[in-house]
Amino acid sequence: MAKVRLGIIGLGQQGGAYGNMIKEGRISNIEIGAICDIDPEKKKWADQEFPDVPFYQDYIDMLASGDVDAIVTCVPHYLHPEMGIEALDRDVHALLEKPAGVYTKQVKEINEFANNKPDLTYAIMFNQRTNLLYQKVKEIIDHQEIGNIRRTNWIITSWWRPQGYYDAGSWRATWDGEGGGVLVNQAPHQIDLLQWICGMPKKVYTKAQYGYQRNIPVEDDVTTILDYGNGATGVFITCTHDVLGTDRLEIYGDKGKIVVDDSKKVTIKRLNKPEKEMSDTMSMQEVSKLLKGEGSGAIYQEEVLEFDSVWGGQHRAVLENFAANILDGTPLIASGSDGINGVELANAMHLSSWLNKEISLPIDENLYVEELNKRREQEIRQNIQT
């Protein structure tokens, strides 16, 4: 096999973008094997843009056709695990869009199914893991360059979405169609990066607001306190209504700190001595000078790194890596099984806000599904009444 024949399920904004990348030759090891969408209007568009590509309205028919070696799921989140399982069951490789699913029980199903298909490639579109900036931050943390983490803070409020964005699709920002708001649509990348770089917390406490600044039933504003179980804590803040949004990640360790601004610039301050050693050995005269800002530069070394924007290139990198794993065994950037961590964190945040209490991880999966279904059913009843 020289190229992987990719089946694109869902020819919306994301599926169309992938189709154009491949058509334009920007992904060297993939060709479009087939396209699937349930909307007849999408067939008209596909016939124009991809005239030689088979089109299916039923993805099962596409999987059984022999036209594809692999699929990517550009569909509502609830369908990702189901479609992935159906593909793997037919010996078709699967790349899931983020998030891996809406709740952990369904993600566990595909993870367990994939374990029984070790010869197939199962991956997830965590394109931010290809970002050299975050790879560098992870390397610094993994190598203990700023010591043991004491605190993490991520304000990611640069996800501004106007009301028209939500009105464009009936399934958007609904419990029954999408499974949530900013935590399952916009912020899964940062949620994944946070746990990928800093590890999973042991507990979360969340204050979320639902339909706060937009006419939607799901969360559009979230503030979460993270407890890592060893004394370290964190704060994660996200929303979709801040037109002057902020993207700032701070990681404090006992030997320094990292600050990331706008996902473009990293400032690393490495202490010459661990904080505990400074506390135990500095005289009050030295402390007084330090508090006045005198000689503060002598206690740490500063490094500033700036990175170019790689928007768009990240998705291509994941697609190329997915195909390379199929063709020659190149290690995956993000195995599909990794997707459950971000889903569990988002589930824990929802559950904490719904029950107004701190939630321990791993979460009570059955309780989460029960609470989610209450909201889905209420939403359906309200839609019938209106």
UniProtKB/TrEMBL annotation:
> What's one Pfam family the UniProt record gives for this protein?
GFO_IDH_MocA_C3
This chain belongs to the protein called Predicted dehydrogenase
Classification via SUPFAM superfamilies: Glyceraldehyde-3-phosphate dehydrogenase-like, C-terminal domain, NAD(P)-binding Rossmann-fold domains
Start and end residues of each Gfo/Idh/MocA-like oxidoreductase N-terminal domain: 5-117
Q: What is the lineage of its organism?
A: Bacteria, Bacillati, Bacillota, Bacilli, Bacillales
**Which InterPro entries does the protein's record reference?**
Gfo/Idh/MocA-like_OxRdtase_N, Gfo/Idh/MocA_Oxidoreductase, GFO_IDH_MocA-like_dom, NAD(P)-bd_dom_sf
Annotated PANTHER family: D-GLUCOSIDE 3-DEHYDROGENASE, UDP-N-ACETYL-2-AMINO-2-DEOXY-D-GLUCURONATE OXIDASE
A GO MF annotation of the entry reads: nucleotide binding
Q: Which residues form the GFO/IDH/MocA-like oxidoreductase domain?
A: 134-258
Superkingdom of the source?
Bacteria
